Amino acid sequence: MSDLARQQWLIPFLPLVAAAIQSVLPRGQRKLSAGLCLLAMGASCVLAVRAFLATLGHHEPVREVANFTWFEFGNTSLQMGFILDPLTAGMAVMVTFVGFWIFVNATGYMHEDENFTRFFCFLSLFAAAMLGLVVSNNLLMLFMSWELVGLCSYLLIGFWFFKPSAAAAMKKAFITTRIGDVGFFLGILMLYWKSGTLNLYDNGHGALEQAGALANLAGWWGLSAATTIAVLLFIGAMGKSAQFPLHVWLPDAMEGPTPVSALIHAATMVAAGVFMVGRMFPVFAAGGSPEHPTFAMNMVMWVGCFTAVFSATIAVAQWDIKRVLAYSTCSQLGFMMMALGAGGLVPGQFHLLTHAFFKALLFLGSGCVIIGTHHEQDMRKMGGLKKYMPITFWCYLIGMLALAGVPPFAGFFSKDEVLLQTFHRSKIAWGLATFAAFLTAFYMTRQMYMVFAGKWRGGDHGYGHGHHEPHEVPWNMWLPIAVLSVFALALGFFGTPLIGGNLFHHYLGVEEEMPEGGVGIVMGCSILVGALGVLLGWMVYGRKQMEHATDPDPLESPLWRVLNNKWYVDEFYEATIIRLTMTCGMMFRLFDKLVVDGILHTIVWLTKAISQIFRWVGDELIINGGFDAGCESVRGSGALFSKLQSGRVRDYFAFLGVGTIVLLTVYFLKQ
Amino acid sequence: MTIPLGHYLILAGILFAIGLGGALTRKNAIIVLIAIEVMFNAGILNLIAFWHYGHYASLTAQMFAIFAISIAAAESAIGLALVIAVYRHYKSVDVDEMKSLKG
Amino acid sequence: METIYQLIVASFAGKPAWMPLAIAIAVPIVFVLGVFLTIFAYTTLVERKALGRVQNRYGPNRVGRWGILQPLADGVKLLIKEDIVPRSADKFTHFLAPVMAVIPSLLLFAIVPVGPGLVPVNLNIGILFAFAISTASVLALFMGGWASRNKFSLLGAVRAVAQVVSYEVPMVLAAVAVVMAAGSLSTLDIVKAQSGGTAEIGGWFVFQPWGFVGFVLFAIGAMAEAARTPFDIPEAESEIIAGYHTEYSGFKFALFQMGEYLAAIAMAGVTVTMFLGGYLGPGCNLPYVGILISMFWFFLKLGAMIALNIWIRGTWPRVRVDQLMGFAWKVLLPMSILNIVVVGLVRFMPNVVVGWIVAAVILFLAFVVLIKFSASQSIEKRTYRYAS
Amino acid sequence: MDIAFWIISGITVLGALLAVTLRNLVHCVLSLILFFLGIASHYFLLRADFIGAVQILIYIGAVAVLILFAIMLTRNVTGTEGPRETLGVKWWAGSIIAGTMAAMLTWAIRGDQISQTLPGGDKATTSVAEIGRGFIGDWVVPFEIMAVLLTAALIGAVVIALEEVMKRR
Predict the structure, then answer these.
(1) From its phi and psi, is residue C57 left (phi > 0), alpha (psi between -120 and 50) or beta?
(2) How many Å separate Cα A660 from the centre of its chain?
(3) What residues of chain B lie within 8 A of the CB of A594, using their CB?
(4) Assuming Cys at both sites, which of A211, A609, B57, C277 could form a disulfide with C204, CB separation 3.0 to 4.6 Å?
């Protein structure tokens, strides 16, 4: 058993080796590259399953750790470690299994791409990073994997970097998640400061085992230390798991190849945030009780709840097949966060697992559709694909029903648990989430009808691949979705009270009593809204099919247009945060030039110059007020002063010398 | 020998200042490199002087001196290669003309 | 074994302290200036005679019997010749260069032991000192070539610098092998490490495979450092007139020649010390006369090395610039690095014979491969970038 | 031996001053060599023979020669600089900074207790063997890193300087 914990490193290591080998493969070695990738992933999957099986059949939840010292400086040592517990084992199996089938699908999807090996190299690295994140028993290692995941997503989203939109999307994804990572990193630092360790579990000395003690320490903003840390960590999770207001990168990430979307949205990157919150759950919950939850828990729940509804509304009005799924992912991640925030570690993680399967299925299915329709992503130009792509259709239907929460598919059970958990915490949140579930059913039905029903509308345009009819995809693309659809169908039963009393609960072994009561109301409501959503979808999109790709949406209205434009969040950011940042950047630049340059001239000149800037900045900000004008003039003065930074080595040298003299002077004066 | 340690330190300080002055006042990149070498040597002289007047049995100072000399050699090789590359580009070795990095 | 310095100090016990010091400083200086300058003078004569015979003519035979006073006559002639300094020359540097050419060469003799304990200074960094000094000699060539403001001089100077810097590397590495075997940098210790063996001959490093290779490498490097034929492209008269000393005449020219010859002789002395057992030879351990016998052996070997130099100069054509550089970097350098490895390897061999055979096989194979490799490179047709 | 210190120090300072003030580049390098020699002599005087030899071997044998080559390769064969540099603001600023620094350093050192330290008797110099053992003993890691650094510098210098040759092909 402890051997298994010590061998956990093999799980991320194998894909890492595969990535390393592929990075030096010549471009032509496509089969070798894909084979290596699949082999490594399959082997990791076997290892993960082995570890998973070892955690089964214990009465007490298993938790094995293997810590080792990474390096020491002085008396301080930084440790790393691996963990084997139900949470890790379940995640690892999910990631490796889903990842494996995504890889299989990718061999078909990327078939024509000339950078096939590079793609698989990145994919392997991505999988390795994610698995490293899952098996690590140390926040530092988790953070490193976390950043690696971010890097890989950056590389993969921008895999077709020659497309300007992809290049923009990759930057957006990186920077947005980076903002969250700052919070995460602060949280890590604070945790280290307060608890003195970054190990999660360490025979009673680990950070999580000290969570109770942390709750008694004072943190910032009048919160307890544990809650402060939790809030900071959650900011990181918000970035990674695309929670409002850091969700903007996720839809843009659709610029990447579809298997990447499947990998990012289903199994890995977005799951990282939820997983991390689940992993750090003791810190979040420390100091609270079900009746009086901590601020961190409330924050998680309400952010999740808001994201769930918010994204679902946007998903209603999108044309791009992948964007619908992307917003749906945001929404579902909101569900997970909400469950975690409501105190339900098990429902959250369970929904994460089931969602990974059916969302991977949906994404791969959409990938099949895109390949089948010759790289068409606009749902208006699809239609009637049921005839051309039967296998894809049936699998997609299963995924759609699972997502829409129709019993007995996986999504129904997991979502139901989430809703139940929320119901006991807050009726308002429950109501909103139920509304989001209704929207989910509605937009998925809309998508099904637009894509698969009616007649083929793709022929309207005579470019691209010409007037080719859609066709079914090769076996290596439909096999994965077929396999995944089996799981989407069956996985839900492991988490239901129906057979033998909630296996998943028992497996994770969290000592939390599921509140009694309310099961009937919640389940009834969710079945009802699911049915209502499907029905409404049929009424709006099913009864009367779109005839032409240029037809307007039946719901065309001002509100719809707002939704179509994603509530103008991007534009809002553009107008506020980005512009503010630019302005700040200008001002910093200005400051830089002045400080650097002023030394050569007399102090009088320096004083005059600084007062000049202050006058300018003050002038512009106070008198003009408007951001635009202020920005412009600051930019202008910045350009003016930037001329003063000479770029000459000699000047910089002189500054060094002056600095040394100043230091020496200080030294003398202090004596 | 009755020269106290301070004499060596002052000598090194003066040499360092000379190097610094050279780096500040000259425009030719090669002379700037020369001046940097002067500063390097002033620093190494300090090491050896401290070794001589201090813990004689220790190897540390000599090791540091050797490493510093090696680094200086590597630095000058790279520096001169850069000067040559810059010369090819700008047809000049005037450091004041190498200001593409200006703001 | 005491050095000459310690002997002198001991014999002046009880006298004022400056006396042994003065004597200990004066004796080696007088010895080096007297003996080695004479050797230099007669080396020029022998060289001219030998080259004459190689080229089927007599060589100098007018001044004195067999031309034996020829060096003296040359000296007088050069002393009274007009000292020409080009108008645009950098006067000070032009003046300094010949002086700079002689000083390092003379300094080299400071570490060459001519007999047991008979070394001017027994530095514990002996060989390193030799290399440090010999690199300085290249500066003189550069200064001379550059100060003359003559493009041929400058070309010669740059060639000299490039050549010396290149050949320095394999030479130092060849010496590293010896230092590894002897376990010391001191020249006296290196000689002592070669003692023993049959009649004080069998222990010479040159009889080891790596020693032989090192000897050849070192001899080639020394020849190139002194810019002697066939490595005399810095002063190749058919290409760049006379290289760096084109603009020198009179005694400055003589100083350049003197520096070159002294460097060659000193490097020959270092070669003898490092590979040929220095002053070791049959009878060098005898009481009283041992010192004389060992000096005899040393100068005999020195003479043999000089003769070898002259012989090679007379019979080999001058190499081309690209061949010169390619040879240094592609053949000598790998060979010398391998040589170091082999020296280390030999230490771990079970016995001397096996070590000898293994080292010989490795070095021979490496030599064959390297020669084949570089030969295939040099056969290719020459292309001219600027001429059609 | 005191007199040796003063003579060598004078030569060293003179060399350094000339190296950074002379107009002719090659003269600068020759002065630099004088400076290096002075420093090496100081090392010998301080009984650090090995460092002294290394100083000569590396600085005079390699660095100075390298600088000379750089001068030749930048086509400034005569070594003269272009138009005379005026004694402008920058010159004065630089000189004042350097002078201030020299003065302050001197002042700082003179005022310190440690500067009065005298060598404790005549001691034997460190043997090369000890240094060699240090390289493969306590200092093996820095030594290896230095080897890597030098290799990197070698490759880097070749790459930078080879650029033109590659372009020509």
Answers:
(1) beta
(2) 48
(3) none
(4) C277
- Reported residue count of chain B is 103
Please give the Cα distance from C40 to C258 (Å, whole number).
Answer: 7
For residue range A22-73, list pLDDT tens digits in order: 877 777 777 888 888 888 888 888 888 888 877 776 666 677 777 777 776 6
For the ranges A16-20, A535-539, A650-654, C349-353, the maximum mean pLDDT occurs at A16-20
pLDDT in tens, A597-643: 555 556 667 677 777 777 676 665 565 555 566 567 667 777 766 65
- Whether residue D97 and residue A667 make contact (CB cut-off 8 A), yes or no, is no
The residue range of the domain holding B32 is 5-91
- Beta carbons of A654 and B103 less than 8 Å apart: no
Residue B98 domain flag = no
The answer to whether position B97 is within a domain reads no
Is the Cβ pair D104, A661 closer than 8 Å? yes
B71 has a chain D CB within 8 A of its CB: yes
Q: How far apart are CA C142 and CA C155, in angstroms?
A: 10
pTM score over 0.80: no
Is it the case that residue A500 has pLDDT exceeding 70?
no
Q: Looking at chain D from residue 68 to 97, which residues have their Cβ under 8 Å from any Cβ of chain C?
A: 68-69, 72, 77-79
Tokens representing C124?
């514990």
Chains B and C touch (3+ CB pairs under 8 A): no
Chain D interface, best mutation among C18, C93, C124, by max D CB count within 10 A: C124
Positive or negative, the CA dihedral C57, C58, C63, C67 is positive
Asked if A664 lies within 8 A of D108 by C-beta distance, the reply is yes
What total of structural domains would you count in chain B? 1
* A-B contacts at Cβ under 8 angstroms: 39
Give me the interface pTM, i.e. the ipTM.
Answer: 0.61
Angle between helix axes A345-372 and A410-425 (nearest 10 degrees) is 140
**Interchain pair A645, B32: CB under 8 A:** no
Asked if residue B99 belongs to a domain, the reply is no
User: Is B20 a member of any domain?
Assistant: yes
CA distance B40 to chain A (A): 15
User: In this structure, what CATH number is given to the domain that contains residue B45?
Assistant: 1.10.287.3510
Cis upstream peptide for C230 (omega within 30°): yes
CB burial string B12-48: b at 16+ within 10 A, e below? bbbbbbbbbbbbbbbbbbbbbbbbbbbbbbbbbbbbb
pLDDT at site A1: 46
Nearest to A660 among D89, D101, D107 (CB): D101
Q: What is the CA radius of gyration of chain C?
A: 22
- What 3-state class would DSSP assign to A265? helix
CA-based nearest distance D104→chain A, Å: 7
Chain B residue at shortest CA distance from A655? B24
Chains touching chain A at 3 or more Cβ pairs under 8 angstroms?
A: B, D
Interchain CB distance below 8 Å, D78 and C124: no
